[in-house]
Write a structure and sequence with these properties.
mainly alpha, Substrate Binding Domain Of Dnak, Chain:A, Domain 2, Putative Methyl-accepting chemotaxis protein
Length: 207
């Protein structure tokens, strides 16, 4: 996250609360969606085993579903790891900004008895500049993690398309396979839409 040293503590606090709120909501919904995708991927594997060799071709798709679900979880974990330092840095920046603001607005009578006040302010500002650079790096890591997650979602969408094609070729089992593929498609679309919404919300703060 890019921090502007001229931004007031109140504005920083508002930005932090906004990021915290959307992140909490995003993480809760994402956990539910990922569990749903994993369950549907497992259902696809069970269906294939139940029909034996007749669905051998779709078995490859079902396995890809399961692997894709696991990759989504890994990408989600990486994203969580990227979010934590960003939020921590935001909190530290907020604290530094608050302290600078308090020091700069001390009454003149207090300043007379604090000869090292200006030096203290300068040190805090240097710390804030360091936080700003750390925030930029944290923002970059989060963007990379979001992009990685989006690429995994795209790969799973491709698997879903293959699943629909394969299901259409399976005769008596076609209806069951089509339903499995449709369920997986809906679950992946939910994750994709959730990710895009969260990314847009985060970019409004990072920009």
């Amino acid at each position: 996250m890019t921090y502007d040293t001229r931004v007031s503590p109140t504005e920083l606090c508002g930005g932090f609360v906004g990021v915290a709120d959307v992140t909490f909501s995003f993480q809760g919904q994402l956990r539910r969606y990922l569990r749903e995708i994993d369950r549907k991927a497992l259902n696809a594997q069970v269906l294939v085993k139940r029909h034996g060799k007749d669905l051998a071709g779709y078995g490859v798709v079902a396995q890809s579903f399961r692997e894709g679900a696991q990759q989504l979880q890994t990408a989600a974990d990486e994203m969580q790891q990227a979010i934590h330092p960003l939020m921590l840095g935001f909190m530290q920046t907020l604290l530094d900004s608050y302290r600078i603001d308090k020091l700069e607005h001390l009454p003149e009578t207090a300043r007379q008895f604090a000869p090292g006040l200006q030096r203290a302010i300068e040190e805090r500002q240097m710390q804030l500049e360091t936080r700003t650079e750390q925030g930029r790096r944290a923002s970059t890591r989060l963007r990379q993690a979001l992009a990685r997650f989006e690429s995994v979602v795209a790969e799973l969408e491709y698997v879903v398309v293959n699943g629909r094609i394969e299901a259409a070729l399976k005769g008596d089992a076609r209806a069951a396979l089509a339903q499995v593929s449709s369920d997986m498609d809906k679950a992946v679309v939910q994750v994709r839409n959730l990710l895009r919404t969260y990314t847009d919300q985060i970019e409004k703060v990072l920009s």
